[in-house]
Amino acid sequence: MTIPRQVSERRSRHSAIRRGRHRGAEASQNFSRGFAALGQLALNGVQVSARATDLATGAVLFSVDDHVVMPTASIGKVLLLVEVAARIQSGHLSPLALLDRSREDAVGDSGIWQHLQAPSLPVADLAAIVGATSDNLATNVLLRHIGLEAVSSRTESLGLTRTALLDLVRDHRGPDDAPQLSVGSANELTWLFSSLARGEIVNSVTSQRVISWLSLNSDLSMVASAFGLDPLSHRAVEHRTLLVNKTGTDAGVRSEVGVLRGPRAGITYAVSMYFDDATLASRLAVLEGMRTVGLDLLEYVH
To answer: Using CA atoms, how far apart are residues 156 and 162, in angstroms rounded to an integer?
Structure first.
């Protein structure tokens, strides 16, 4: 099979920036706290993957097993949003087209639509609430309309081989279902968000539309808990800080990818944790480790 030149170049770029397991020796001392926190979690049995790159130069600031494919829960919804935005931009999908929810789309957990009375919402509104609350019902309705195969084709066209949306959202996963909603590598996720921030995913309008939806995200419970932002209102610059991020949460999974800008620099980061979520203490330790990484990122951009 002949690989298109654009995809080949993207895959080469992913491969070229990979390094060894840890890059602590080359990283700024600003990241020493994060490395220590992640190292302690790893010693306690947590599977850790992380990466941070300078948004302007692409330089790798630190990485920990950034090539490893990890469960990323709802982060894979970004790939659905890319396909939705691309279809809107091409004229193949109207942002005002009403989509109905059905019994087969029903799912619990994250999101607001399941608690509303409206039986139908426009495409653009569904994408917005996916960005804002990681809405599971809206995800399933969009995915039923768009098709998982189309999302997979778009993902492949971007040159992503370790990152994918695998399934619709389910309350329970059986033996015949995909074991995870999505997977990804920190390497590819930082590339994806850097490219979105630079307007390089599909085209600048498509990238900006996805960024606009993601800028509504209200989950600042992980890495972004260190940034001091208002979870419900942070689309504008506040204290010279601007954030766009997406999180993923599932049993034993905490994952976040984002772009953080400050007065001194911009940074793209991805941190994923896979752990035994048997006790509250285990979960709190993971969240504290992610927050510690966030403190280092904030220091870098300021």
So the answer is: 10
Side chain identity at residue 302, one-letter code: H
Provide the token pair at 33.
């706290």
| 120-122 and 164-165 strand pairing | unpaired
DSSP assignment string, 37-72: HHHHHHHTT-EEEEEEEETTT--EEEEESTTS-EE-
Domains of the chain plus CATH, in order, are 5-301 (3.40.710.10)
Q: What is the pLDDT of residue 172?
A: 87
User: Look-up: residue for tokens 């949306």?
Assistant: 165
Nearest to 83 by CA among 19, 189, 156: 156
Burial of 42 (0-12, 13-18, 19+ CB in 10 A): middle
The pair phi, psi for residue 198, each rounded to 5°, is -90, 0
Closest CA to 227 of 260, 254, 203: 260
The greatest distance separating any two alpha carbons of the chain, rounded to the nearest whole angstrom, comes to 55
Q: Following DSSP, what letter does each residue of 138-189 receive, concatenated?
A: HHHHHHHHH-HHHHHHHHHHTT-SS-EE-S---SS--TTS-SSSEEE-HHHH
In the chain, the amino acid numbered 188 is E
Q: What is the pLDDT of residues 144-188, one digit of tens each?
A: 999 999 999 999 999 999 999 999 999 888 888 889 999 999 999
d(CA 118, CA 297): 40
pLDDT, average across residues 12-40: 61
For residue 36, give the amino acid letter.
A
Query: What type of residue sits at position 25?
Result: A
- The token duo for 74 is 């709802």
Instruction: Check whether 98 has a pLDDT greater than 60.
Output: yes
Contact 156, 149 (CB under 8 A): no
pTM: 0.89
